[in-house]
Amino acid sequence: MYAFVNGPLVWIAFAVLVLGSLWQIVSLYKMSKRTDKVYYDHYNPGAAAASVWAWLMPFGSRSWREHPGLTVGTFAFHVCLIAVPLFALGHAATLEFNRGIAWPSLPDAVADKMTLVFLAAALFLLIRRFAVPQVRIVTECKDIVVWVITVLPFLTGYLSAHKLLLDPDTMLMLHVFTGCLMLICIPFTKLAHVFLFFMTRAFIGSEFARRGTKTW
Amino acid sequence: MSDQMPVNAEEIMAVIERNDSARLRAWLKTCTSCGLCSESCFFYLANDNKPEFMPQYKARKTLGELMKNKGKVTRAQLEEMKEVAWARCTMCRRCSQYCPFGIEIAVMINVARQCMRTQNVCPDRLMTIDQSYVEFGNQMSIPDEEFVETCEWMAEEGQDRLKDLEIPIDKEDTNIMFVVNSREPKYYPQDIQEAAMVMHAAGENWTMPSHGWEATNLSMFSGNLKVAGQVTQTLYDAAIKLRAKKICITECGHAYRAAKYEGPYWTKQPGGKAPVEVTHAVALFHSYMKEGRIKLKHKFKDAITYQHPCNLSRSGDLGELGDELMEMLCENYVPMEPHREWSHCCCGGGGFIPMGADYKKTRMVAGKVKAEQIQKTGAKFVLVPCHNCTDQINDLNKEYNLGIKVMSFKELICELMDLPPHMKPEGEEDE
Question: What SS3 class is residue B300?
Fold first, then answer.
């Protein structure tokens, strides 16, 4: 079990992530060629890029500026979500040990704090889901499931790094397992917004630009 | 009675399949239910932030339910959806601007409206209007002859204000083919006269068609896109027949959006572009002022604010020009906040005004946001370049005791413009 999770499962997860995402992107692209004439008629690369960029920047869009609390929470959540797994020392060391690829890493203390920031931000987003009536009314079971799937790798990573709760090997296995689960889920759940974000924003940027209007 | 007719799920699904696009699928897959659309919506704000008024919820309760049930819903369910799709959304598209993914809830509501329209579930007045378009070519059931007579009458009467005022009908090879909202010949023929005065004073080579003069396209909002396409095609055909360089839409919002942006798709124009360039009175008057073709006696002196209609300033490209024209005409222009493309809908759009008395109360409640915006500017004059906004703001004026006067650009320009001596009517002395 331990060998499977820490070996083949990791490869399977990455393969599913890459192939699944590619499949989603290619099939949507092909479909758009047939169904979204409006997009290709008015595609505006400048507006599309500006629209993506403004929303990737904290307070870059009017909507972000008008909701400062959520903006801080969302950006803390996403920045840590991406940076910690990519640059955690444990991950870099594993990569170098197994594949001989040198990879930049964050000092443990930094990754540790960022994990806590991530967990705090995740908790904030969860509480917001239930505390804010207009968010609660549209929250579904699958929103919670996606939240759990995203949070588990961080929680288990933190616990295993600090040798808490379970014996370190089991916790490490849980960490790898939940991490793989998240990667596998990205193309097939709402987590697909990782890549769909760029497509939908490029569309709306162009669509509003043809009307002389900004969406940021 | 249509109330007893069974619901035809196949017809509903045909609409959904026709609208099944990659962007719709991507929207459904990405929405993380973050709730950022809520506060962008004036319905939500005006109804005490009730969560049921937040945009995503509205899309879910209409198109979402129809998709989930594969069109197999009851008439009672459709009636409930009707109240959401028509009485809680004007498709003003402000929520798309506030969504991190740019999801267009208005497009989804529009698809839901199309689905319901196949079952004759739609506010009655809007359905009657579809019929009027088919029978008369305009929403107010005016025969073409009557329209032409109105123009002749207005030209004649207008000669008291501008010497030799003409309203050329069916003149070929003109620069502008001016088209109106049929509300003008029906209730406000003065509007036609004033537009004619401005164009005459600017030395424009223009005309109006005797057929295809109606610019409004309310079928866009009833969900009957077949009729919407017919109305647009009639407009394009008239311009092509008269070889007009441009179609100019009167001060009306959805008419401009329909003719310039949506119409080309309903009528399957190559490249999604209208076969004849479409412009709007705001842009036309702006060019007259900028080029010095219209001179003013003086600028308008009182504090005045400007209603940016959604279909002109958000779904159309006239936000900036509207502001600039205000600056050129008025000394004391006080913009509402937010304005231009971020403007709030007044709740006259999306078919709301023609939906009639049944929906007036809803309209007055949701219009509170606009009423407060106007109040905050402190201005007692509101310039409104859209007929539906005009009706709504006049109603809001009474409802909320705003004590304001609503004006149009043509009205304001006619009041302020300095006519060249040869256009001044006999006996009028220089001031």
Answer: strand
Decide if B26 and A201 are in contact by the 8 Å CB cutoff: no
Q: Which residues of B103-140 are buried (b: 16+ CB within 10 A; e: fewer)?
A: bbbbbbbbbbbbbbbbbebbbebbbebbebbeebbbbb
Residues A211, B261: C-beta atoms closer than 8 Å: yes
ipTM: 0.93
- The residue among B393, B420, B415 whose CA lies nearest residue B404 is B393
CB burial of A85-115 (b: ≥16 within 10 Å; e: otherwise) equals bebbbbbbeeeeeeeeeeeebbeeeebbebb
Of the candidates B59, B104, B61, the one whose C-alpha atom is nearest the C-alpha of residue B262 is B104
Q: How close A59 comes to chain B (CA, Å)?
A: 12
Handedness of CA A38, A39, A43, A47 (dihedral sign): positive
CB atoms within 10 A of CB A19: 11
Is B306 in contact with B326 (CB distance < 8 Å)? Answer: yes
Q: Which residues of A touch B49 (CB under 8 A)?
A: 133-134
Question: Chain B window 20-39: which residues touch A at a Cβ cutoff of 8 Å?
Answer: 20-23, 25-27, 29-36, 38-39
Neighbours of B177 (CB within 10 A): 26
Residue B103 has φ and ψ, to the nearest 5°, of -75, 130
> Dihedrals φ, ψ of B361, to 5°?
-60, -45
From first to last of its 431 residues, what are the pLDDT tens digits of chain B? 455 789 999 999 999 999 999 999 999 999 999 999 999 999 999 999 999 999 999 999 999 999 999 999 999 999 999 999 999 999 999 999 999 999 999 999 999 999 999 999 999 999 999 999 999 999 999 999 999 999 999 999 999 999 999 999 999 999 999 999 999 999 999 999 999 999 999 999 999 999 999 999 999 999 999 999 999 999 999 999 999 999 999 999 999 999 999 999 999 999 999 999 999 999 999 999 999 999 999 999 999 999 999 999 999 999 999 999 999 999 999 999 999 999 999 999 999 999 989 999 999 999 999 999 999 999 999 999 999 999 999 999 999 999 999 999 999 999 999 999 999 987 665 54
Does the model's pTM come out above 0.90?
yes
Give the CA radius of gyration of chain A: 20
B54 to A70: CB separation less than 8 angstroms, yes or no: no
> How far, in Å, are B41, B99, B105 from residue B44 at the CA level?
5, 15, 14
